[in-house]
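ESCALATION

Customer reports they have been waiting on this structure for their group meeting. Please prioritize. Original submission:
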Amino acid sequence: MILARLPGRWDSFVRAGLALAGVVVGIPLLLAVLGFDAAPSIAALVRGSIGSGYAITSGTLVRATPVILTGLSVAIAFRAGVFNIGGEGQLLAGAAAAAAVSQLPIIGTSAVSSWIALIAGAGAGGLWAGLAALLRTRFRVLEVISTILLNFVALNLVGYLVRGPLQEPLHIYPQSATITTAARLPRILPASRLHAGFLIAVAAAIVAWWIVRYTAGGFRLRAVGANPDAAYLAGGISVPRTTTTAFVASGALAGLAGAIELTGVTFALYENISPGYGYTGIAVALLARLDPLGVVASGLLFGALEAGSAAMQRDAGVPSVVVSIVEALIVLGLVVGWPLEIGASNKRTRAVTPVEPEETRTFA
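Update from on-call: job pushed to the front of the queue and completed.
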């Protein structure tokens, strides 16, 4: 409970320091336990993440971009008391929509085609989350269950698309056709893989932080997440409308992550376009204590670990899942004894918002 007593920003600094200490200590210890030579493995991890300018820009920052956006997606939803575990499916929906739009003859060659693809991806992600919001509001289906199941629906939908309507013209590989150069996000640095999506992710975090902290909508979101009964009875806040808005905004951020990954990195849609960015976003958001600006810092940490683990597997023969184990242990260790700001004063987990009269329950 020590972390819970620390004031706002100091808590974030302490949490980041503990996470970094966990990485420094945990990875060598785990490597030793598993029988790997720690020194060359750690050297490969450092080279692949922060060992050079190219490693930082083409590895760490590129890997951090989608997890920052999915972390923001989780942070916004959890702040409103919505347990959106469907970031992976919403990301896939966004990537599929971006691929479909980019294949259209007129849009695919337009100078603004990449931005149209991003809008389509965000819209598809929001729509995918809206399905779970509808199930929660109208039919009292737990969003934890519905969003997890929708992840599998999205995965199989992408599998169908890359073998059917969106498959490349030769019908040899299970993937879409490569998008045109005009449909790709511009590079920030010509000699690296870093694209404009990273700046979009950072800008989204700043905007989300400002909205949550300084706007009436952000206050309603935080009030509903803290105690929906009090928000409705004392504040007159429409709880279903607020949670649905948070749900859709959360899905839009995850869908934007998928669209950015397609237009900035892969340039084609295929089944394994995401190595689990939607699930990693949950850890990123928890590590940041659901703070949008903190999500950027934790996203960079996880991006460095992801980039370094790939180099460690390639250069030292150490399975990349070793880093994933350390990531999981760090998050578990940091959230123990720390009350999340989702229903902190209200210990019950709800499938649907209570107390509001039937005639005022509207899906908006």
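Sent to customer with the following note: Residues 1-8, 343-364 have pLDDT under 50 and may be disordered.
Escalation resolved.
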